[in-house]
Each structure stands twice: as structure tokens, then as C-alpha cells.
Amino acid sequence: MIYGDKKTGILVQGATGKQGEFHIGLMNAYAREVGGRGVVAGVTPGKGGQQVHGVPVYNTVKEAMSDHDISASVIFVPAGAAADAIMEEANAGIETIVCITEHIPVHDTMKAIAYATMQGSLVIGPNCPGLLSPGEVKMGIMPAGLFSRGNVGVISRSGTLTYEVVDELTRAGIGQSTVVGIGGDPVIGQTFVDVLKEFENDPQTKAVVLIGEVGGNLEEEGAKCTDLPIVAYIAGISAPPDKRMGHAGAIVEGGEGDARSKIARLKKNGVPVASRPSEIPDMVRKLFCGC
């Protein structure tokens, strides 16, 4: 697994908000199921001393860090304060920061990720569903019931497509090592390249499914950087050219980043590309058997 395991202590920022409270419950239900630590502390300024599902809430990240062994966090803070939340966690020494929040201003994101990088922290997101290593750890909002343990890593820019592909793999008897949603914004922390490098150092991951969408060239950059066998799926084949799509990162301009040209470049680099999610399990099997 990558980014965390059963021993990882997780902090949640925005712990007393509706989403933070709801997902603390789900993350810790999964932690109990797999025998992990899960969320050990929450932070909401002004709400220190409260509890959420038995998890103590603190006013600041440093206060929580002084009482608990924490190496990862999940952020459910509103967009206007999310960049400050990332920087507060990086300043406190949290190694892995998962930011679920969407609609963060791009300049705020750039500043926060640059600061976190200088502090040695990894940011996953923003505008992402987080990550899940089956049987080990859940950080974020992914529906754990779809996942099964195995040797296939998944990296995705899309939340709902991630769940569909994972469900297809699990139904076909193909388990996952770690599934990472990197987010759909134009500026994100961990890219396909970064996560693929993590997978290369993970002995459990033997192949990777790369789920992309229109806009940018992150998928092609990732495919070029690894020796791991890859199957790709690119959403948005019917998207009109020169249009801005729903995700902030899905901007197609000047014939670059549209689905067809992206698929063509991936195939040129020897990456098999599925035309629909249901094709992915058979394509993954071919990677393993070489047939």
C-alpha cells in the first residue's frame, strides 16, 4: 500500500461540520473492520473539547499533534479556508494531506501546495475523493464496500468513475492495492507521475489502471514515466472541442487535451486504452497473463 496503512493516525479538519462528522463515522467504521487506527483527532477552531463519534476535537492542528501520533489528514474545510488548512497541517509536520474540498481559488491552491512541498508534505487533491487501500486504510469519501484486496493500483481524476471501475474490477475478481483520486482541478498536489512513482516502490502493486478525462496532458506524462503495466480509460470522447467541461481541470483548447488525441498518444506509447469501463477487467487480465 502507499500513503498509509493500518497504523496511520488520521486527523480530520472540519471535524464538526456536516461532511466531516459524517465521514469520520465512515472512516472509523472501516478502521474497526480492518483493525486499523483510523481518525484519532479532529480540528475545528472554537470547538475544542467536543467529540465527534468519540474522536476528540481540538482548536488547532498543533494541539492535536501534541496529544496524538498523526501522519495523515483529511480536509473537509470550506473553500475559502481550505488553503490555510493545508498550510497549517504542513507547518505542523503532517506527511500526507488529503483535501476533499472543491471550488478552492486556483491561486490559493498554488500557494498552499507550494508551501506544503517546501515543508515536505504530500497533498492529494484538492477536489478529490481521497484514497483507499483495501484492508488497510480509508482516507476520504470512497465507498469502501466496492473494494477488494489485490495487486492492481488505480489512479483517477474522476470520483464517480473511480467507483465504477473499482466495482468492475471487484466483480471480476481483481483486487486493488491502493486507489487514489488525485482530483480534477487544474492545480493539484500529487499527479499521475507522482502516484505512479509511489506504486513503483510498492511491492504489492503489479499493474495500474489509469482513469483520465479531457483536459491537459497529465495522463500521457504519467504513462511515459513508469515501467509498470498500465491500462487506461479516458472519459469525454463525445465532449465538444474548445469547450470548458464540468471539472475545472477539464479544459480543451487548440486540439490539445481532447479525448481522441489523448487516447491516440497513449496508444502510440503502447498503453492499451479501454473504450468503456466494462472492458477494463479483461484488459488487466491480459497484462498479467501476457496473452
Provide an overview of this structure:
This protein has 291 residues and is α/β, with parallel strands linked by helices. It folds into 2 domains: 9-124, 3-Layer(aba) Sandwich (Rossmann fold), CATH 3.40.50; 143-289, 3-Layer(aba) Sandwich (Rossmann fold). 34% of the residues lie in helices and 22% in strands. It is built from 9 helices and 14 strands. The chain has helices at 18-34, 61-67, 79-92, 106-118, 159-171, 192-200, 218-224, 259-268, 280-289; strands at 9-13, 38-43, 51-52, 55-58, 72-75, 96-99, 122-124, 130-133, 137-140, 149-156, 176-181, 207-213, 230-235, 273-274. A 7-stranded mixed sheet has the order 3-4-2-1-5-6-7, with helices on both faces. The protein has a 7-stranded mixed sheet with strand order 9-8-11-10-12-13-14, with helices on both faces. Strand 6 (96-99), helix 4 (106-118) and strand 7 (122-124) form a beta-alpha-beta unit. Helix 3 packs parallel to helix 4 and helix 6 (192-200) packs parallel to helix 7. The protein is globular, with a radius of gyration of 19 Å. The two termini are 27 Å apart. Residues 248-252 have low confidence and may be disordered.
Summarize the structure.
With 291 residues, the chain is of the alpha/beta class. It has helices at 18-34, 61-67, 79-92, 106-118, 159-171, 192-200, 218-224, 259-268, 280-289; strands at 9-13, 38-43, 51-52, 55-58, 72-75, 96-99, 122-124, 130-133, 137-140, 149-156, 176-181, 207-213, 230-235, 273-274. The chain folds into 2 domains: 9-124, 3-Layer(aba) Sandwich (Rossmann fold), CATH 3.40.50; 143-289, Rossmann fold.
